UniProtKB/TrEMBL annotation:
GO molecular function, one term: hydrolase activity
Assigned keywords, A-Z: Hydrolase, Signal
Signal sequence segment: 1-21
Keyword check for Signal: yes
Stored SUPFAM superfamilies: alpha/beta-Hydrolases (SSF53474)
Family matches, as InterPro entries: AB_hydrolase_3, AB_hydrolase_fold, GDXG_lipolytic_enzyme
Stored Gene3D superfamilies: alpha/beta hydrolase
The protein's name: Alpha/beta hydrolase
Lineage start: Bacteria, Pseudomonadati, Bacteroidota, Sphingobacteriia, Sphingobacteriales
Amino acid sequence: MKNNLRVFLIPLFALAIIVSACNSNTESSTIKDSSFVDSTSTFSLKPAGPPPEWGKTIRPEMQAVIEKLMSYEDKPIESLNAIDARRNHTPYDAVTDLVKLNNIKIPVVKVDTAGKDIDANGAKIHLRIYTPKSGSGPFPLIVYYHGGGFVIAANLDAYNASAQALSEQVGAIVVSVAYRLAPENKFPTAHNDAFVAYEWAIKNAVSLKADPAKIAVVGESAGGNLAANVSIMARDKHIMIPVHQVLIYPITQANMETQSYKLYADAKPLNKAMMNWFMEKYLTTMIEGQNSKISLVNANLKDLPPTTIITAEIDPLHDDGIIFANKLSDAGVKVNSRNYEGVTHEFFGMAIIVPEAQAAQVYVANQLKAAFK
């Protein structure tokens, strides 16, 4: 696996936001085209071949990323042990290489970063802290949890683009959490580490130049599951709950027989076989998949913070996000959900290439800025 690769983000301009109200607690919309995306972009990547069988509606830029990822000819993750799987190329390696190959200009970074190791349940976990270069604070505070199925994100570089975008576009301190991974650390280690990091962020907010009263949690995929669990644990432990949570294509259940799992069983970069592999690596027994920490749809969801859920069309986890949005709404939680068509799992951090990622990042940033007011 390539080390220390970072994907940087294109400056974003005004985007039109199209929202349709579905009921009193839920707003949902589907982004069907990219005509609203920053018109100042001067490049457009073209895929080399026809759309794949598993994704006939895939957008050209998204397909170009997937083609590049497949060009590395890595062995399927589900055929490897965890250590070897972590050496595979990531979608962000593909984006980085496409940026280089197409001479795409990398924007100036608007944040400073620093590392911090903290104690977590008898071990150490690493945090990467992003601080805006402009402004004096106190800034809002976001605790961010990366994806990787609880197993394969061996460092924070693969998700640097997402954390950096949140810090730059929201004008917030972002604490990105390198929770311990499976199978070396079984369930519920990642969940417990996630909460320890949240508690640390609250206790150290002032020294970070952050406002502890303006804290949110954001997570992608497995990290979306962790972010939601942090909100639940904060409620149950009677400490400050986040003012908002953003769950990006989150894992919310162990059921792999949903319609999106059937439609996109062979999709890239995430497929059904990989999800089975992730669960086998993280859980001691598959029965644990019914635990409400994994199957959030079984959890008590009352009194959770307002929630933004982002889903991708071509993603086995698409229905996880939709089902969870409905469960939250039924529990009285205000939910905004937005689906982006033509893109796959992991698209959110690809804003330098994929227009839908640009739009999703701006939408999320606007949701967070409104919550912090």
